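Quick review question:
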């Protein structure tokens, strides 16, 4: 009988290495892992509990492996399995994997090692045929529910989603519903592909064409359902009449989108979701019609199938049981055109100037219908590129025009705009239309709203920087040993920028061909503001400052020169295009698995948790950046020339308020409301939010508002001069040549002279 010793000998590695690989106890190199796996496959080795090998008797536990129980259907499915097994005094071990393939693999291997009597699995990785072949070789009876590898012979219990969605769609088409949308979970799961097939078949049978924009695959959580709903509802006259979905959690998100569009109470868009209405007597939600699949029947059938297999392992033939789902849409009247009851003509119209940055402001424009429905005020959007916005706002306000009512601007410009008289003081409006500033993040009102003790704006987006890193890489012992040998530093998340650069160099293949990733980190310094946000944390980490305590310029110091040199060195270890990339582009480098680290304002990191796109969704960690973070974000103010100050104030109060804080964050913004950071769903989706709130309180402003002479600093002009002087050094660094401290002293002497002229 093949043992772990045989595998170690075949692979040419130690028994400990094989044991670590089998039990996922320690990270080993990909090369060693492949060698061990090849030996396991060649020898047809069946993994058992490593301490006792095959001498252990089969225990009586049943292993149950589920990705989550947040979906009501899965919760009832699990309850049914447990209830059925309990009738036979059968004990069980429950493993919840949070839809993480690695956690599921570890759970399955652990249960195989324990030699459990059997397993019931609702897998999150049906494409991983290898793990199920291992399970098959172990001889342990098992049952898969709803998901399995393609053409894999096993005990299988499922619901016929193809037939269900073909019937539902066909009946809707027969009732003259033509705009029928389908929102599914990931297309890597069989039940969602079958739903789409049935949906498309119904259209073919009816002689009609499907529209690609009406079919959406996404992660099956509320937040993604909300995004899908907004995507469907912002089509104007082409709003779907019915939305079908394969997940009740998606249905809840879709319902929230209807609420934002003020369509929920009118029941003009019907949501039909797979579910278990036959078992859920407490479900009375007119906005969501649930199908009648019996979760308890399905779970019980899986339990029966497994116990029969356990009792007759030799003569038992694998079985596949397919349930038919049912539904009741008889109450749906024949289709009629959607007619909203909103005002046909707005009482007022205001113009809002937004920055043309889709990552951060598109969410606001997609939520405007909520403001319109609540206030009967129409909003006209005017956009300006971020790089042109400062000068554009200055020129507009100097012109005396009253065309624009609300201005979105970078928070460092607040003092300058207020001092110049560009912004309307909001104190009287805040008394007339009260708002609770305690709902904002600590000190947000002071940083984003006030100048000289008066309010001139409200916070729109409040954000700080975080460092994101690859947990799988930073916990790899072989990498740690190699790093210690080559650089004599430990493999730990960097605490200062010297450590950061050392690690970034090690993880850049140009300097280390054995690096598991191509680049050490990713960055974007394509404009002066991004450059300053990259530089200031380094200056603070080295103990420097651009101004002394009396707020006089003190640029040419050793600490500041070291900080600039640190940034220039970092340029050599980053992916290309940093002078053209936006922060969202730098995030994509990390999301695609090309870099070991990246630091950013955390509103750009939302793609990390997108399981349909992110290659590091289960492999990233986060912490504070070295030094202190830059306090950043945008504010909303009212133009001093506005003829509609009350309507404008209602808008900025709505845009910065708690009513849209959650949906705005889901759509890519970052609300200044503290409720976002304390919301369970938001923290579950974006786990870095609690850390971000802590770092927000520790963040620092880039520059002081005024100089030693009391003059308000034109930060835009200051930063542009700084950036232009640094650009030749940045380009040299991109070519591999970093300026030394003596060269920087000469550059800084010239730069300090130029900056003093504008202060």
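Suggested answer, residue by residue:
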């Amino acid at each position: 009988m093949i043992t772990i010793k045989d595998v170690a000998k075949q692979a040419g590695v130690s028994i400990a290495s094989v044991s670590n690989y089998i039990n996922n106890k320690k990270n080993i190199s990909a090369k060693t892992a492949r060698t061990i796996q090849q030996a396991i496959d060649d020898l047809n080795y069946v993994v058992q509990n490593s301490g006792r090998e095959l001498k252990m008797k089969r225990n009586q536990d049943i292993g149950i492996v589920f990705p989550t129980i947040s979906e009501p259907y899965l919760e009832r499915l699990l309850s049914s399995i447990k209830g059925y097994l309990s009738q036979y005094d059968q004990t069980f071990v429950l493993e919840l994997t949070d839809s993480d393939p690695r956690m599921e693999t570890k759970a399955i291997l652990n249960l195989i090692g324990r030699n459990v009597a059997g397993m019931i699995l609702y897998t999150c990785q049906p494409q991983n045929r290898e793990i199920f072949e291992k399970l098959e070789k172990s001889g342990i009876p098992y049952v898969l529910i709803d998901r399995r590898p393609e053409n894999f012979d096993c005990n299988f219990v499922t619901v016929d989603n193809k037939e269900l969605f073909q019937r539902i769609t066909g009946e809707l088409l027969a009732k003259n519903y033509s705009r029928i949308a389908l929102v599914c979970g990931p297309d890597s799961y069989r039940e969602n592909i079958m739903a789409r097939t049935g949906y498309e078949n119904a259209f073919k049978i009816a002689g009609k064409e499907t529209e690609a924009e009406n079919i959406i695959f996404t992660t099956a959580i509320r937040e993604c359902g909300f995004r899908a709903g907004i995507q469907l509802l912002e089509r104007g006259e082409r709003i779907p009449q019915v939305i079908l979905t394969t997940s009740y959690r998606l249905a809840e998100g879709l319902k929230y989108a209807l609420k934002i569009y003020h369509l929920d109470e009118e029941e003009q868009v019907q949501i039909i979701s797979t579910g278990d209405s036959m078992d859920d007597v407490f479900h009375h939600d007119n906005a969501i019609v649930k199908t009648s699949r019996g979760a308890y029947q399905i779970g019980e059938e899986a339990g029966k199938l497994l116990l029969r297999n356990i009792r007759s392992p030799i003569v038992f033939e694998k079985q596949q049981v397919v349930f038919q789902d049912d539904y009741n849409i008889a109450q749906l009247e024949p289709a009629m055109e959607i007619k909203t009851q909103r005002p046909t003509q707005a009482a007022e119209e205001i113009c809002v100037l937004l920055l043309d940055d889709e990552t951060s402001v598109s969410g606001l424009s997609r939520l405007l219908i909520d403001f319109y429905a609540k206030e009967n005020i129409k909003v006209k959007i005017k956009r300006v590129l971020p790089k042109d916005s400062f000068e554009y706002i200055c020129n507009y306000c100097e012109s005396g025009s009253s065309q624009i009512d609300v201005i979105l601007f970078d928070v460092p410009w607040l003092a300058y705009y207020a001092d110049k008289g560009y912004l309307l003081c909001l104190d009287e409006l805040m008394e007339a239309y009260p708002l609770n500033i305690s709902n904002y993040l600590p000190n947000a009102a002071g940083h984003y709203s006030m100048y000289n003790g008066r309010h001139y704006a409200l916070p729109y987006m409040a954000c700080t920087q975080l460092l994101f890193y690859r947990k799988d890489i930073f916990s790899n012992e072989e990498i740690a040993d190699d790093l210690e040998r080559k650089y004599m530093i430990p493999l730990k998340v960097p605490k200062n920028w010297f450590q950061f650069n050392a690690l970034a160099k090690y993880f850049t293949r140009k300097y280390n061909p054995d690096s598991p990733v191509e680049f050490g980190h990713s960055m974007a310094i394509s404009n002066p503001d991004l450059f300053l946000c990259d530089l200031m944390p380094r200056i603070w980490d080295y103990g420097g400052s651009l101004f002394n305590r009396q707020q006089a310029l003190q640029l040419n110091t050793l600490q500041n020169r070291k900080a600039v040199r640190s940034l220039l060195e970092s340029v050599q270890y980053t992916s290309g295009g940093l002078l053209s990339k936006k922060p969202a582009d730098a995030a994509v480098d990390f999301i695609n698995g090309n870099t070991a680290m990246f630091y950013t304002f955390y509103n750009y990191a939302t793609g990390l948790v997108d399981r349909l796109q992110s290659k590091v969704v289960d492999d990233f960690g986060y912490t504070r950046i070295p030094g202190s973070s830059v306090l950043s974000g945008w504010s909303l103010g009212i133009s001093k020339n506005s003829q509609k100050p009350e309507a404008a104030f209602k808008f900025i109060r709505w845009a910065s308020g708690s009513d849209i804080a959650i949906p705005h964050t889901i759509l890519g913004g970052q609300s200044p409301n503290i409720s976002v950071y304390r919301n369970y769903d938001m923290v579950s989706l974006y786990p870095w939010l609690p850390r971000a709130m802590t770092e927000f309180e520790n963040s620092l402003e880039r520059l002081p508002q005024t100089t030693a002479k009391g003059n308000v600093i034109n930060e835009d002009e200051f930063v542009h001069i700084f950036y232009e002087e640094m650009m030749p050094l940045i380009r040299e660094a991109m070519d591999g040549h970093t300026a030394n401290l003596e060269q920087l002293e000469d550059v800084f002497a010239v730069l300090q002279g130029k900056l003093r002229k504008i202060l």
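Why it works: The domain at 471-630+714-756 is CATH 3.40.190.10 (D-Maltodextrin-Binding Protein; domain 2). The chain is about 45% helix and 15% strand.
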